[in-house]
Amino acid sequence: MPSLSTKENQSPRSATIEAVNSYIFEYFASKRCDSVGLDELIGAKPKSMKIEDVLGGLAERCVDRPGRSASHMVVVHQI
Questions:
Q1: 68: helix, coil or strand?
Q2: Are strands 75-77 and 35-37 parallel, antiparallel or unpaired?
Q3: Nearest to residue 74, comparing CAs of 23, 33, 19, 16?
């Protein structure tokens, strides 16, 4: 019996979190910056992503967790 990959075994919520984290990382990497307007970030999100999920992903990056380091700092500003 073939084994299922990790992505195929993910819950819908885990897949959403992974997609949001990937979007945030790729967006900042493509801009080559660590600061961006919230309206710009939300405006560029895929239509299939909920605003609440993107904001949750940003909030998660701001929280320190023992034994876990961030790969980059994310600064979002609203003017």
A1: strand
A2: parallel
A3: 33
Phi, psi of 33 (to 5 degrees): -145, 170
CA 25, distance to chain mean position in Å, is: 6
Phi, psi of 14 (to 5 degrees): -60, -40
pLDDT tens-place string over residues 12-58: 888 888 899 899 888 888 887 767 778 888 899 999 999 999 888 87
Helix H segments across 6-69?
Answer: 6-9, 12-31, 38-44, 51-62
CA distance 26 to 29: 5
User: Which tokens belong to 10?
Assistant: 């993910």
